[in-house]
Specification:
Two copies of one chain form a homodimer.
Chain A (H helix, E strand, L loop, with lengths): L2 H22 L8 H12 L5 H12 L7 H19 L9 E2 L2 E2 L1 H5 L1 H19 L9 H19 L4 H13 L6 H26 L4 H28 L2 H4 L5 H4 L5 H5 L1 H20 L6 H11 L4
Antiparallel strand pairs in A: 1-2
Chain lengths: 304, 304
């Protein structure tokens, strides 16, 4: 697929996923209307829906053909979105703009920002649990869905994304010295955990074997790590017009990154190695991995 | 049971429940240690464990005999605790003390307060999902536990507790005029939803019939409503020494309460009617309802 076709394919899939997410969003009515509006506002501000896209494609790779994956796809985006809403709060990164629009607390006030994040996090579980309504297959009900839920919850929480956020906040606020192991922990959890979750949940719902899920996890770990290093690379050498934000902010904020620790060339090399390994592992699966391969390369080598 | 025996029985059960909760708390280790400490700090600051107590007793009432209820009991207390941690944040009620101890954000900083609440909310689901490991019964796995999880999630979220918090914050911050319907919505959701959840999850895990669960819901609604009105009554006529806080704060804060709307006598009458109805409904069940009856009366007619 050439670059133009790939972009069109991704754009089509984003629209398809937005259609799915839309069916799971709450109605904006009743006495909690303000937070319902804030929840939907923050979801609608979203981008390409990378995580649901990875989940759906991995589900199909292992032969999944039902719509049982759809509540999880919507739930995944809700978890990702709540984490951004709370990350933007004054007590955290204190960001007033995201993708050129006011952040949720900037638009609805700080109390509503806290509550909208809480509501989205909880609604992610309400939504994922709707997968039980999508099948009558006893193995799915009693084993695959419970396993997928456990993965989903574990990767989002204190031993996953929230753990990464915690270490990141502490590293930035306390100005702790840079440390290879701690930096890896932050990248693997703050950025990587939801990418792992997306792909592993997809595989699990399609009843992939334990070995296959482990291999999917390794692929996702590489992609998450490469994705984050590329983010840090772009902060140094990116095109401000393409990025829509000033470059060099990590250095100004004394933010610990892989690039700061290892330099630009070693970072580029690392992205390359991680991505090649992920693509090799993908090729080892029987199904059609062509879109996933191209999508992973696209994600990692993006310019914005 | 006389009052002294009842207090002893409740105290014994609180200890028993604390033992269960303890087994589900995360270890304080690794790079996210600060938030892990903050999570456990906020849980350990807790009180009588009213919600898990109601859950376990309702589970037993309908013949439940397994430990599948235990992860849900711990999860219930985690949800309740996260809601207090976030309620206490500067953007919300801005409380620095709870039960005479520094609130979580007061002890660990505001960013850690946000993250500890998020982590606890997510950990509640990680914990409740461990119920799948507690049984091999296919009906439990494929039906009762999923139903209990759906109830649990729905009552905690935007159509339950978070909805009530939202309406409450708006009513206080915007100084909206008092309105019977909105006040009922706030009480039923902010206070009532988790009490409903506790008792309905207990009944559901014990495979109570749909009619029995509906009756349990009605009982819980009455108790939640009476509990909140009693709270508001104590704010007017309570003993400051017993309460451990100054009375009259609702009036000073122009907080909309049932007492403000209906006066003290009508409020006391309402508590009495609601509680009598709840106890009558309880007596309609076959099992031993004596502890639940006394516990509900104790909760409603407490002096602190």
């Amino acid at each position: 697929m050439n670059n133009r076709d790939l972009k069109q394919e991704i754009s089509d899939r984003t629209k398809h996923i937005n259609g799915i997410i839309e069916t799971y969003l709450p109605k904006e009515e009743g006495y909690a209307q303000t937070v319902l509006e804030a929840m939907n506002y923050s979801i609608h501000a979203g981008g390409k829906r990378v995580r649901p896209m990875l989940m759906e494609e991995t589900y199909h790779l292992f032969g999944g053909k039902e719509d049982v994956v759809e509540p999880f796809m919507a739930a995944m985006e809700m978890i990702h979105t709540y984490s951004l809403v709370h990350d933007d709060l004054p007590a955290m990164d204190n960001d007033m703009l995201r993708r050129g629009k006011p952040t949720t607390h900037a638009a609805y006030g700080e109390a509503m920002g806290v509550l909208a994040g809480d509501a989205l996090l909880n609604y992610a579980y309400e939504t994922a649990l709707l997968s039980f309504e999508k099948t009558k297959d006893v193995k799915m009900l009693s084993s695959s869905i419970p396993k997928a839920l456990q993965l989903f919850a574990s990767k989002a929480g204190i031993h996953g994304m929230v753990g990464g956020q915690t270490a990141d906040v502490e590293a930035e606020k306390k100005g702790l010295s840079l440390d290879e192991e701690k930096l890896s922990y932050i990248i693997e959890n703050k950025t990587g955990a939801l990418i792992e979750s997306a792909m592993m949940v997809g595989a699990t719902l399609a009843n992939a074997t334990r070995e296959q899920v482990a291999c999917v996890q390794k692929i996702a770990q590489n992609v998450g790590f490469a994705f984050q290093i590329q983010d840090d690379i772009l902060d140094v050498v990116g095109d401000e017009a393409l990025l829509g934000k000033p470059i060099g902010s990590d250095e100004r904020n004394e933010k610990p990154t892989y690039v700061v620790l290892h330099g630009l060339e070693a970072s580029k090399e690392k992205v390359k190695t991680l991505t090649e390994e992920a693509v090799e592992l993908l090729k080892g699966f029987d199904g059609d991995t062509s879109f996933l391969e191209e999508f992973l390369m696209y994600l990692v080598y993006r310019e914005k």
